[in-house]
Amino acid sequence: MNISIEPTRKTAGDSAAVVTSLLALVVVGATVKAPMPFWPQGLGQPPALGQVVLIAGILTGVVAHSVFWWRDLDEAARQAHRRAWWRGGNLGILLGAAALAVALALNLPVAPGPMAGRQEGWAVFGFLCLLFGQAAGYGAAWVVERLRG
Q1: Which candidate in 4, 39, 58, 94 could, as Cys together with 46 as Cys, close a disulfide (CB 3.0–4.6 Å)?
Q2: How far is Cα 77 from Cα 29, in angstroms, rounded to an integer?
Q3: Cα-Cα-Cα-Cα dihedral sign, residues 38, 42, 43, 44
Q4: 12 — phi, psi (to 5°)?
């Protein structure tokens, strides 16, 4: 069995379909004003159903676009992204964890309004520290990789 990892170059039509779907989701998000059913009352007022559909659709579109983009990369570009993600992502997640530890040690306020001082606020803050640290580390490593040639 011969498995090829060469890109198909047919993704222009796929990307157009993703963009068209996202535009349709924007229309749905702007027009459907009914409240989200089955929303836990502990979370406050439910968002509009159209907003939830829009956010879910955008996330799905981003994942689909990423798959199409990755398929079109040649192997050298894929390796460069893998190295940047491994080196920069690991260093960034370490720095994000350090930022979280500093915030915990200094008992800094990390969430506004109703989330202030609650465990949920700290959970969201911790997640964002790790996520943004990892993304920033990847971005910095990718830039260094590009500058090296």
Answers
A1: 39
A2: 36
A3: positive
A4: -60, -40
